[in-house]
Design a protein that fits this description.
Elements (H helix, E strand, L loop, with lengths): L1 H40 L2 E7 L2 E8 L4 H18 L8 H6 L5 E2 L2 H16 L9 H6 L7 H6 L7 H9 L7 E3 L4 E3 L8 H19 L4 E6 L2 E6 L7 E6 L6 E7 L3 E6 L4 E4 L2 E4 L15 E6 L2 H14 L4 H7 L6 E5 L5 E3 L11
Antiparallel strand pairs: 1-2, 2-6, 3-5, 4-5, 6-7, 7-10, 8-9, 10-13, 11-12, 13-14, 14-15
Bound molecules: adenosine-5'-diphosphate (ADP) and magnesium ion.
Length: 354
C-alpha cells in the first residue's frame, strides 16, 4: 500500500506545481495586459474652482495624472490672479492706471498683442479695451459667485458715453522693442480671452508631460481637447440650450476647442430686462444680437475670442461672421434672441461622426 501511494503523491505534487506555474503565468499575463491597456481606458477626473468658474479636467496619461492636474490647476490660478484688471496691484490694474508708456512682461505683452489682433479681425466686435464699461455695468468681478451678490444699477447714458469715449482698441499704442504699452485712457479687460489662454496653457502642460495623453479640460462651458477618447473615439459635446438646461445640439470632436458665450452666465434682471456681461463695443451696452454663440476652433484662445465676437456681432452682422470667421478656421453656432439657430457652412462637419 505504501509503495503504491508514494508515486501517486509525487504525481500530485507535480500536477499542483504545474498548475501553480500556469496560474502564476496567467496572473503575469493579466497584469501585463492590464498595464498595457490601462491608459487608453482609464480616465482620471479632477475638479476645481478657478478662472471665476468651475473647472473639470479629464485625463488619461502614462505619466502621473495627479502631478499634471496639480500643475494645471496652479497655472489656472496664476492666470486668474495675474490678469484680473480690477485687483489693485495686478499688472493690468497698473497698466490701466498709468498715463504714459508702461513696460510689461513678455507674457502680458504677447496676450495683449494677440487680443488686439482679434479686435482687428472681428472689426472691433471683440474688444479687450472695454474695461471701463465692464466696471460701469458692475461686471468687473471675475467670479460668478461674486457677481451674483453685487448690487446692480443701470448706468446713465452720460456715464456710458464717458466710458465709451475712453474705450476702443484703436487708441492703444504698442512698442514692440520695449514691450511697452500706451493705453491712452482705455482700460484693458482680457476676460474674453483669459479663459481660453488658460485652457491652452493647460493643454501645453499636459502635452509637455505626456504627448500621448488624451482627455479634455473644461471651464465654464469652454473646452480644450487633449486627444480622442480612448485614443480613437470622438468626444460628444452638447451645446447648452441658452433658455434651458438641456442640449440643443451635439458636436463631435477628437481635438481642438469649443467655447460658448451666453447671456445666461453672468447677468442681472431689472424691470424684466436682462443685462449681461458681454458689452457691445459700439453701444457700450450689453450686446443684444444673440443669446448664445458657440465657436469651434483649433485652439482655446481662438474659440474663446471668436465666441465672444460672434455673440456681439449677432444676427444683425451674421453675414460678417459667416464669411470672415471660417476663413480664420472657426465655425460658429449662434442662437438669436428669438431662439432661431444660425450655423456657418462648415459647422455641420462637427455634427456628424465620420
Ligand atoms: P464667459 O467668460 O462667460 O465665458 P466670454 O468668453 O464671452 O464669456 O467673455 C466675457 C468677458 O469678456 C466679460 O466678462 C468681459 O470681461 C469681457 N468682455 C465683455 N465684452 C467684451 C467684448 N465685446 N470684447 C472682448 N471682451 C469682452
Ligand atoms: Mg469668449
Amino acid at each position: 500500500m505504501r509503495k503504491r501511494n508514494r508515486p501517486d503523491l509525487n504525481k500530485y505534487s507535480k500536477i499542483s506545481f504545474i498548475s501553480l506555474l500556469i496560474l502564476l503565468s496567467l496572473v503575469v499575463i493579466v497584469i501585463t495586459v492590464a498595464v498595457v491597456l490601462r491608459n487608453p481606458n482609464m480616465y482620471n477626473d479632477y475638479e476645481t474652482f478657478s478662472l471665476g468658474t468651475y473647472v473639470h479636467l479629464k485625463i488619461s496619461t502614462n505619466s502621473n495624472p495627479d502631478i499634471i492636474a496639480k500643475e494645471i490647476f496652479s497655472e489656472l490660478d496664476r492666470i486668474t490672479e495675474k490678469f484680473d484688471p480690477y485687483k489693485e496691484g495686478s499688472i493690468l490694474y497698473n497698466l490701466n492706471h498709468s498715463d504714459d508708456w508702461y513696460e510689461v512682461d513678455d507674457e502680458t505683452f504677447a496676450l495683449i498683442e494677440l487680443a488686439l489682433r482679434y479686435a482687428k479681425v472681428t472689426d472691433g466686435a471683440f474688444d479687450p479695451t472695454i474695461g471701463r464699461l465692464v466696471e460701469l455695468w458692475g461686471f468687473s468681478s471675475y467670479s460668478e459667485k461674486l457677481a451674483e451678490d453685487s448690487v446692480h444699477v443701470i448706468p446713465s447714458e452720460e456715464a456710458i458715453k464717458k466710458a465709451l469715449d475712453n474705450s476702443g482698441y484703436e487708441k492703444v499704442e504698442l512698442d514692440y522693442q520695449k514691450k511697452a504699452i500706451k493705453t491712452n485712457g482705455v482700460w484693458f479687460d482680457l476676460g474674453g480671452i483669459a479663459k481660453g489662454y488658460a485652457l491652452e496653457r493647460a493643454y501645453q502642460i499636459a502635452k509637455a508631460a505626456d504627448p500621448e495623453c488624451t482627455g479634455f479640460i473644461e471651464a465654464g462651458g469652454d473646452i480644450r481637447i487633449f486627444g480622442p477618447k480612448f485614443g480613437k473615439d470622438f468626444w460628444i459635446i452638447g451645446i447648452r440650450n441658452p433658455r434651458g438646461t438641456d442640449s440643443i445640439d451635439y458636436i463631435y470632436l477628437k481635438g481642438g476647442s469649443v467655447a460658448t458665450s451666453g447671456d445666461y452666465e453672468r447677468y442681472f434682471i431689472v424691470d424684466g430686462e436682462r443685462y449681461h456681461h458681454i458689452i457691445h463695443p459700439r453701444t457700450g451696452k450689453p450686446a443684444n444680437g444673440a443669446i448664445s454663440a458657440t465657436a469651434i476652433a483649433d485652439d482655446a484662445i481662438s474659440a474663446d475670442a471668436y465666441s465672444t465676437a460672434a455673440f456681439v456681432l449677432g444676427v444683425k452682422d451674421w453675414l460678417f461672421v459667416r464669411t470672415v470667421f471660417p476663413k480664420n478656421n472657426t465655425e460658429v453656432f449662434l442662437v438669436s434672441p428669438d431662439q432661431k439657430i444660425f450655423k456657418t457652412d462648415g459647422f455641420s462637419y462637427y455634427e456628424k461622426i465620420y
